[in-house]
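INTERNAL AUDIT FORM
Audit reference: QA-55
Scope: verify that the stored structure record matches its stored sequence.
Auditor: D.O.
Record contents follow.
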Amino acid sequence: MRFASTLAASLAVSAVQASPLVVKRNDGPVKTPVVDDGIILNYALTLEYLERKFYMDALANYTQAEFVAAGFEDPFYENLKEIYFDEQTHVDFLSGALETAGITPTVELQYTFPATDPLSFVTLSSVLEGVGVSAYLGAAAFIVNKDYLTAAGSILTVEARHTAYIRASLDQSPFPAPFDTPLDFNQVFSLAAAFITGGSSPVELPFMAFPTLTLQCSQYYYEADRSSVTFSGAFKAAQKFHVTKETPIYAVFFSGLQKARLPVQVRITQGDSDYKIDRLPAGISGQVYVVLSKSNTKFNDENIIAGPAILEVYKKGKIPATPKAKCH
C-alpha cells in the first residue's frame, strides 16, 4: 500500500470586499453565520475554484510519466483530466446560476498547496475531495430553493465519486463508512484558511476561522477504540479563551452522523502545552474530523475553541499490514 503523511486540508470559502484577502484565525468565540441561498451558492463556487486550481496546477506540474513512476498507472492521469473538467464545469454552472439570479459571483483567489510530488498531490486530493463532500452535505440543510438543492446534490454525488476513486488509488477503502460526514460553514472555512494566500473579491462571505488544531505526527496508523491522539500546543493556545487547567475540554470527533455521541475529555501533557486523549472513540472510520469544545453536549460554533483537524482512522483490527510513512 502507498501512504503519505496526513495533510491538513480543505476547500475554500472567503473573500474580503474590494480589498486584498487576508485570512486570519479568530482568537475569540466564533459566531454561527446567517446564510441564504445566494451566500451558499457563492460558498460552493469558492470551493470549486479552489479545487479547479488544485487540479490545474497538478496537471501543469507533473507529467503522466511521473504519475506512473509514482505507482499511479494509466489511465490515472487521464482520469485526473476528467476530474479537472468536472471542477471547471461546476465553476461555470455555479457562476451562471448566480448571474441568472442577479447575484454577484465570487472570483478565484490565490492559493498555495503543500504538494511536492505526485504522491503528496494524490494524498492531498483525497483529503480535499473528502472535505468537499462534507461541505456540500453540511450546506444542504440550509438551501431553500429546491432547484438549487437538486443541483447541489448532483454536484455532491460527483464529488463523492472523485473521493472514492482517489482513495482507491491510494489503496484506501473507497467507502470506509456507511455515512458521509457533514461539516458546517465555519468548519470548512477553517480548513480552507491553510490554502488561501491572497486575492480580492466583490463578495464578502460571513464565515470565520477557528484557531488551528495541530495533530502531533504519529508513527502508527490511527485505529478506532485503540489509538491515542496528541494535539500539539493546544492547551497553550486555549488559554486565549480563558481556559485554565481546571476547565474541562472535549475532543469531539465527526464521523458520519455520530458527532453528538463522540466527545472525549482531554488531558494536559508535555509541560502544560499539549492536550491528549488516550483512546479514539469506537465506531469511527475513514476521513474523520476533530474539534476541541468547551461543551460535551453542545457542539455549536460558540463552544469550539480549535479545529477541525483531520485524521484517517481505520476500523479496529483493520489497520494496514504495511508500515506507515515516517513523520517529517
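Auditor finding: record pair retrieved intact. DSSP finds seven helices and ten strands in the chain.
Action required: none
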